[in-house]
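One chain is below:
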Amino acid sequence: MAGTNRLHDIAELINLRSLLTEDELAIQQTVRKFLDERFRPFIARWYEAGEFPRELVSELAALGMFGMQFKDYNCAGLNATACGLACLELEAADSGLRSFVSVQGSLVMTAIDSFGSEEQKRTWMPRLQSGESIGCFGLTEPDFGSDAGSMRTHAVRDGSDWLLSGSKMWITNGSIADIAVVWARTDEGIRGFLVPTDSPGFQATTLHGKLSMRASITSELAFDRVRLPADAILPLATGLRAPLTCLSEARFGIVYGAMGAARDCLEVTLDYALNRVQFDRPVASFQLTQQKLADMAIEFNKGLLLAIHLGRMKESGTITPEAISVGKLNNTREAIEIARTCRTILGAAGITLDFSVLRHANNLESVLTYEGTAEVHSLVIGQTLTGLAAFR
């Protein structure tokens, strides 16, 4: 194809490779090669059927994708930038795949590693790292998304046990999970619990009819007086700070992941524009098309530069939740605009699953919303700038 030798130039307009180490680039290439062989040839079929490829879980584990930021429990122990680049490649394949990995490794494993007991860590971290067990993270409720502090799910003491009641909504992996990290209101404030999904009174219902994240399992969880032992509670998780810490870890992956979706859209579209002939010349030769490509490539490079900078901040211990909000807001917003603009270059062909751009655009509608909506991240940044909270 005429454009094949130009596809990788998109990320090289400002020589971003020079900011990465050879090890980081090698990890990125390893993940991309795996996805090229084991995921990309089949994703259109899985997306159309609304299926998640569970058969790849063990292979993702063998690749080191679960809990890749941790050094113990046989985890890969990657630095923040390498973890981000892996997320970029996962989402370049499909947002649903990156979401699965993020829930497993950034939400569930962070909750256990940061707030769990030694026994909880010994029991669950190796199982989650190996893919032997799948986890989900229950924070959002049917009536409370951004306002997580108003959750209705509650747990009350019954002797030495706890009784958990309530529901959670939009839970990735919920119907296939073996263990759920569930946040609930108690007399002691908001606490986190490890809930085996085979517990009596626990029910997970897969949500159908989605137009976004179709190759990802999304569920509603219901708890009807689920009895939990005293050691089910995450002992160090008190208040909303605990789940928000986990969300910050996952949001960092989104900063990179969104740029992966954008890059895939750009690569596909540039190749198409170089090969699609109209009026006896490639579509890529028209001024309006080149303006679109130039604008999108600039925004992609800016977004990736921001992601790399945040990665270095995370590695140095200087990153803040507000900085992650900047990255999440900017990169998801730019990625979805890139996907939509790429679709216009592909014309009618862009609405089919023969090309990835509208699949990415649909997925990014969810990514723009979950783990902090664009509006909420705007208010976080606004509060940082003004010192005034606009949430209430």
Summary: The chain has eleven helices and ten strands. The chain has three domains: 4-130, 135-239, 242-386. Residues 1-7 have pLDDT under 50 and may be disordered. The radius of gyration is 21 Å.
